[in-house]
Design brief:
Blueprint (H helix, E strand, L loop, with lengths): L1 H26 L4 H11 L7 H18 L6 H17 L6 H11 L11 H4 L3
Helix pairs in contact: 1-4, 2-3
């Protein structure tokens, strides 16, 4: 019973938490891409001078603002957030079940199996 409970918890967590994160960030006009970019740029302070840091904060805000909702690259930020970041967090490849099975079969082939006309190398027909 605990395995079933853990499996169901993981299924619901992977379904709803990315959605909740997206909704929370949307209240502030952000998406995961703009938020992550802002976090990374905030770590790159060049000097301890407050004037330079203020200038750098302004540039960082301008860059991340382009990835936010309504920014020049807002659509790109939303797309990367939903299709890239959310899938990466869930471990989703974006392939359907049938495609994932086919991909797994292809990865099991030897190096010569995928080369046309390579039956003379592998001995397989």
């Amino acid at each position: 019973m605990t395995d079933w409970t853990k499996k169901k918890y993981d299924e619901y967590y992977n379904s709803y938490v990315p959605w909740l994160e997206d909704k929370y960030l949307a209240w502030f006009g952000e998406n995961k891409t703009s938020y992550a970019t802002k976090e990374q740029l905030d770590k790159t302070k060049i000097t301890g001078d407050k004037n330079v840091d203020a200038l750098q904060d302004g540039v960082n805000s301008g860059v991340t603002g382009q990835l936010k909702e309504g920014g020049l690259l807002g659509g790109v930020g939303d797309l990367v957030s939903k299709e890239g970041v959310n899938r990466a967090e869930r471990g989703d490849t974006g392939l359907g079940e049938k495609q994932a099975i086919e991909k797994g079969k292809q990865e099991q082939k030897g190096w010569g199996d995928s080369i046309p006309g390579s039956s003379w190398v592998t001995g397989k027909k």
